[in-house]
Specification:
Distance between the termini: 34 Å
Strand order of the largest sheet: 8-7-6-5-4-3-2-10-11-12
Shape: globular
Number of strands: 12
Oligomer: single chain
Bound molecules: iron/sulfur cluster
């Protein structure tokens, strides 16, 4: 079988899981009818070199009551995925109450955490509160991870957190930031995910925002990113876990361009979902299209969340895919649209062309 046929076959075999667990659409973070992600705090017990929220959000955190209001509004969008992130969300004392409240609606409730604070008791409480899935980050094995995360012993503690979640019935997925520094670690991380029987890894292109600005030289170049896609397609032939590049919406255009998947496989490509089906709330109530894109559409302390989502000029422009440069004329505009965060990080314009792409007509 050719690599393309093997990938197609893998996707065919895992289709039910993919549809059941994630998305009707397939693209960067994709879930219909939408994803509402609330960064509940900027506080954290780690010092990650690439942290996108560090130095990006100021002002007082939303209170518990304000959080309840946000969750209630989000539920009016339909059965969305509601995610808690940070900083480290477990540093908020009311996190279990917030999860429990979100779980009382028809929503899938998930959390992104560094996992280092999760013992079996914590995992039990999370499960009881209604958490369905925890995403934890691993950027290398052992000391490579610790170096990236700025704290010795972080790797072992995150592994403990993963095992505790699995034991207590909270599903686990991995987040891995892909850079020049840790590129050689990626096969080892995939092996770890296979060994732990995890079903998906989000392989995250480093967007140089927040603290990441200081290490922008480790972001993959266009050529390196293309090689990364080739490597992931080849790796997927043997990996049990689903390898899903994120902050890289042209992965789906690339697969289609190479004839590796098509709509007959049952996938509806959505590409970048920022501001279309994905909405991010910073700790101070600012609403933005994506965690990595700090340009704000409004603040829920000044204007209702649903009003911002439905009527802000920014979200209207993103929904209409009013993108510029090579993204404007690209045949893959609808199914990709370019990473709006990467465009913003590079040019300050969230509608500019995605600077890391070889598929458009330059
Ligand atoms: S802006 Fe980038 S990271 Fe955010 S949803 Fe779009 S492609 Fe993904
Ligand atoms: S040119 Fe833009 S829309 Fe086309 S594939 Fe590249 S990033 Fe996507």
């Amino acid at each position: 079988m050719s690599p393309g046929e093997e990938l197609k076959s893998w996707i065919g075999t895992h289709k039910n899981e993919i549809f059941a667990n994630d998305a009707v659409g397939t693209g960067c973070f994709s879930y219909l009818p939408g994803e509402v992600i609330w960064a509940v705090t900027t506080r954290c017990n780690l010092r990650c070199k690439h942290c996108s929220i560090a130095e990006m959000s100021s002002g007082e955190e939303l209170s518990t009551e304000e959080g309840f209001g946000l969750i209630k509004d989000a539920a009016k969008l339909g059965p969305v995925k509601f995610g808690f992130t940070g900083g480290e969300p477990l540093l908020r004392e009311d996190i279990y109450d917030l999860i429990e409240y979100a779980s009382s609606f028809d929503m899938q409730v998930v959390m992104a955490t560094n996992g280092t604070l999760i013992t079996n008791d914590v995992a039990k409480r999370l499960k009881k509160a209604g958490l369905e899935r925890a995403a934890m980050s691993i950027d290398g094995i052992g000391s490579v991870h610790d170096e990236f995360r700025g704290v010795n012993g972080a790797f072992e503690r995150t592994l403990r957190g993963m095992k505790a979640c699995e034991e207590e019935g909270v599903a686990v997925q991995l987040f891995t930031t892909v850079t020049r520094t840790n590129y050689a670690e990626i096969p080892k991380i995939i092996q770890l995910a296979d060994d732990l029987n995890l079903w998906r890894i989000y392989l995250i292109y480093l967007i140089a925002m927040g603290r990441g600005k200081a290490i922008s030289e480790v972001c993959l170049s266009t050529d390196e990113n293309m090689k990364f896609f080739d490597d992931m397609v080849n790796k997927q032939k043997e990996a049990k876990t689903w390898l899903k590049p994120i902050c890289n919406p042209q992965y789906w255009a690339y697969l289609k361009d190479a004839g590796l998947v098509d709509r007959e496989d049952g996938f509806e490509f959505t590409g970048c979902t920022a501001g279309i089906t994905r909405f991010h709330i910073f700790p101070n109530g600012d609403v933005t299209p994506c965690a990595y894109l700090p340009a704000k559409a409004g603040n829920i302390r000044e204007r209702g969340f649903l009003d911002i989502v439905r009527n802000s000029e920014m979200f209207k422009a993103l929904r209409a895919r009013e993108v510029k440069g090579q993204c404007a004329t690209c045949k893959y505009k609808r199914i990709c649209g370019g990473c709006r965060s990467r465009a913003y990080a590079t040019s300050g314009d969230y509608l500019a062309e995605d600077p890391v792409c070889w598929l458009g007509d330059r």
